[in-house]
């Protein structure tokens, strides 16, 4: 198990793995927003939590098709599927590797980018909590979407279309928690709902993803 | 006593649906014509909404069928996963575009009604938003069906998507409820007499709903037949090329 995780992490970090891609995209989104909406600091601080969530979500989406595509093309997915490790565990590991290389860095840079968007000081802790709780769900749901489209050539657009509606509840609760935090309101309830979504998807979706990968490898 | 599972046999399904289809189609047409003519020309105008109230005869049945079509696909997907009857998978595939069109009708008629009454084509109201999400689910489902070449694999993948999608669709329904307070009025139909829409509107509306249900059944039967025949034709062509 650990070997697979380390292998996936290495593949992602080394050249061509797309490790920096998500981060760069996140940075671009956040930096370009003020140019698009004009230099009004008060406006930025209102939309900051939403923009940061949206940027993180899109950056996540960008790297999803790498989860299975390369392994599927060179045949190592067949080998991994016949290994003694259950496919459910493999899928979970893939999601974990995706989160460690995409979700976690996004969470870590978000506070620095929040400065650029003039976010109120009260909002930093809720934003970090919401992103840290919500991005694992994005990775797990994304892994399910990637598993569905693994056999499809150039399935990038299809993957986005499939994942888009699945991301809605996570985005709503995550952005709501961050927004309420930034406005100094109580953000416990959306945060709890977000945690519930994350726990539920981690517990249940790997079974669906594994079933789907099995169909694609048949 | 004939079992329902007999219709899992494609030949039997086609034979029976051939017999039923003209009746269902004719009845659907009759109900729709009766309900719409009755509703559009022989019901009074609402004292506040004027003539625009009459869009209810399209909007409510379409919205109802948009949700029920997804439910039907969910049941068909479950039958495919559990019992692997091909007709069931094809029926789910056949229902998806019909459901998507019903969703679009509901969204479009709602927009036409909302413009004069609410003063806006679109608001991010929970009901409207859930329907938009439902439409995205339909589009993703249809796209996945057409993207995968192997029929059995496509049926498997889309049924899993339908199951997972149903859970997420419900989740989104309650998430948007939490996210925004609605502008949309409560349900027009209710078993509670007081909540229910007034009788003058209610009776033609019921006829319209019956018409939409029958129309949906007719379209799904027809499209399932087409899918079965298309698949049979592909098999025949493949056999010819082999031999």
From TrEMBL, chain A:
The chain crosses the membrane at residues 12-37, 43-64, 96-117, 129-150, 157-178, 190-213. Keywords: Cell inner membrane, Cell membrane, Cytochrome c-type biogenesis, Membrane, Transmembrane, Transmembrane helix, Transport. Belongs to the CcmB/CycW/HelB family. Its main location: membrane. It is a multi-pass membrane protein. GO terms for biological process: cytochrome c biosynthetic process; cytochrome complex assembly. It is found in: Cell inner membrane. One of its GO terms (molecular function) is heme transmembrane transporter activity. InterPro entries: Cyt_c_biogenesis_CcmB (IPR003544), Cyt_c_CcmB_bac (IPR026031). GO terms for cellular component: plasma membrane. It comes from Pelagivirga sediminicola. This is Heme exporter protein B. Required for the export of heme to the periplasm for the biogenesis of c-type cytochromes.
UniProtKB/TrEMBL annotation, chain B:
One of its GO terms (molecular function) is heme transmembrane transporter activity. It is a multi-pass membrane protein. It comes from the Bacteria. GO terms for cellular component: plasma membrane. The gene is ccmC. Residues 22-184 form the Cytochrome c assembly protein domain. Required for the export of heme to the periplasm for the biogenesis of c-type cytochromes. The keyword Transmembrane helix applies. This is Heme exporter protein C. Keywords: Cell inner membrane, Cell membrane, Cytochrome c-type biogenesis, Membrane, Transmembrane, Transmembrane helix, Transport. It comes from Pelagivirga sediminicola. InterPro entries: Cyt_c_assembly (IPR002541), Cyt_c_biogenesis_CcmC (IPR003557), Cyt_c_biogenesis_CcsA/CcmC (IPR045062). Belongs to the CcmC/CycZ/HelC family. The keyword Transport applies. Pfam families: Cytochrom_C_asm (PF01578). It is found in: Cell inner membrane; Membrane. Its main location: membrane. The chain crosses the membrane at residues 20-43, 55-82, 94-113, 128-148, 160-180, 200-222. GO terms for biological process: cytochrome complex assembly. Coiled coil: none annotated.
């Amino acid at each position: 198990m650990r070997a697979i995780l380390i292998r996936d992490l290495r593949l992602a970090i080394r050249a061509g793995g797309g490790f920096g891609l998500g981060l760069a995209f996140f940075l671009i989104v956040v930096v370009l927003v003020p140019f698009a909406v004009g230099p009004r600091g008060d406006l930025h601080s209102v939309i900051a939590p939403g923009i940061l969530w949206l940027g993180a979500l899109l950056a996540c989406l960008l790297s999803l098709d790498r989860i299975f595509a390369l392994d599927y093309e060179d045949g190592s997915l067949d080998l991994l599927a016949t290994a003694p490790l259950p496919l459910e565990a493999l899928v979970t590991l893939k999601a974990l590797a995706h989160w460690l290389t995409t979700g976690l860095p996004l969470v870590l840079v978000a506070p620095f980018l929040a400065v650029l968007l003039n976010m109120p000081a009260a909002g930093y802790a809720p934003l970090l909590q919401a992103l840290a709780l919500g991005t694992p769900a994005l990775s797990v749901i994304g892994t399910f979407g990637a598993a569905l489209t693994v056999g499809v050539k150039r399935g990038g657009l299809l993957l986005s279309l499939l994942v888009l509606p699945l991301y809605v509840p996570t985005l709503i609760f995550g952005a709501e928690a961050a927004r309420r935090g930034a406005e100094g309101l109580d953000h416990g309830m959306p945060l709890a709902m977000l945690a519930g979504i994350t726990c539920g998807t981690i517990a249940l979706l790997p079974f669906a993803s594994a079933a789907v990968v099995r169909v694609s490898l048949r | 006593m004939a079992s329902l599972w007999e219709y899992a046999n494609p030949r039997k399904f086609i034979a029976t649906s051939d017999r039923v289809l003209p009746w269902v189609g004719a009845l659907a047409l009759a109900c729709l014509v009766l309900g719409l003519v009755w509703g559009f020309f022989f019901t009074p105008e609402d004292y506040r909404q004027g003539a625009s109230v009459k869009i209810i005869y399209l909007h409510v049945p379409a919205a109802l069928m948009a949700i029920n079509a997804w439910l039907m696909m969910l049941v068909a997907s479950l039958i495919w996963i559990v019992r692997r009857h091909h007709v069931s998978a094809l029926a789910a595939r056949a229902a998806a575009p019909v459901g998507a069109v019903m969703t679009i009708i509901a969204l479009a008629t709602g927009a036409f009604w909302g413009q004069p009454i609410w003063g806006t084509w679109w608001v991010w109201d929970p009901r409207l938003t859930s329907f938009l999400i439902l439409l995205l689910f339909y589009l993703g489902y249809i796209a996945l069906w057409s993207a995968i070449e192997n029929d059995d694999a496509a049926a498997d993948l889309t049924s899993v998507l339908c199951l997972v999608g149903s859970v997420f669709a419900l989740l989104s329904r309650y998430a948007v409820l939490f996210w925004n307070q609605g502008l949309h009025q409560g349900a027009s139909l209710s078993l509670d007499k007081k909540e229910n829409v007034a009788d003058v509107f209610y009776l033609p509306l019921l006829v319209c709903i019956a018409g939409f249900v029958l129309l949906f059944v007719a379209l799904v039967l027809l499209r399932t037949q087409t899918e079965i025949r298309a698949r049979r034709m592909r098999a025949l062509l493949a056999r010819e090329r082999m031999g």
